[in-house]
Amino acid sequence: MSSPAHDARTQVAAAARRLAEAGLLIGTAGNVSTRVDDRIAITATGTVLADITPDQITVVDPHGTVVSGTFAPTSELHLHLGIYRDFDAGAIVHTHAPKSTAVGLVLPELPVLHYQQLPLGGPTPVVPFHPFGTPELADAVRAALPGKQAALLANHGAVTHAATLDDAVEHALLLEWACTLFLDAAIIGTPRALTTEEQAAVTEVVQRTGYGRPMALDQHR
């Protein structure tokens, strides 16, 4: 019989496999979680994410105590727990996606080159380097996230969060796309970022027209 915890484990495993298929999770590098009430389903450490199964997803409480599963949770557990504690997040994705990692090697932040980046909260900050799994990294990421749905980690990777697991995955894919766009444009010259005024103008159009949401014909008048 299905339960919220079982469903969450199934969804996290499916999300990890999707991200691996897209090239954002390689081997055992990266982690995914979702929160259901006061339980967090999170990928286990050392698992090959392209092949991960629901039984390789561990369920913990908000303090990190394992309540279900037979594998130790990811080494980035405290990064996830801290974001859940400080932000209204329902899911978190941490990748070592190649283009996102490349941008984090060079820039202090990823500017807004295209209006599709706006759901990420504008420019994406690059968090200073700290070793993986450390309290210092978890603290630095949380400090960078107010008002943001994503952060790049210097010489490491990227983190996205959202209210739902689907949206956290979409944010990770969107961030990788934006980083690819930056790198492609930089081959030609210096990429031109949207100004704050241009970003605000796009936001106004989105709010006025409902852009990006399915809409019946009688609404689109």
From TrEMBL:
Q: Which domain of life is it from?
A: Bacteria
Domain called Class II aldolase/adducin N-terminal: residue spans: 10-183
Q: Which GO terms describe its molecular function?
A: L-fuculose-phosphate aldolase activity; metal ion binding
Q: What Enzyme Commission number(s) apply to this enzyme?
A: 4.1.2.17
Q: Name one GO cellular component term.
A: cytosol
Annotated keywords? Lyase, Metal-binding
Root EC class: lyase
- Gene Ontology biological-process entries: pentose catabolic process
Q: Name one Pfam family in it.
A: Aldolase_II
Protein name listed in UniProt: L-fuculose phosphate aldolase
The organism of origin for this protein: Nocardia otitidiscaviarum
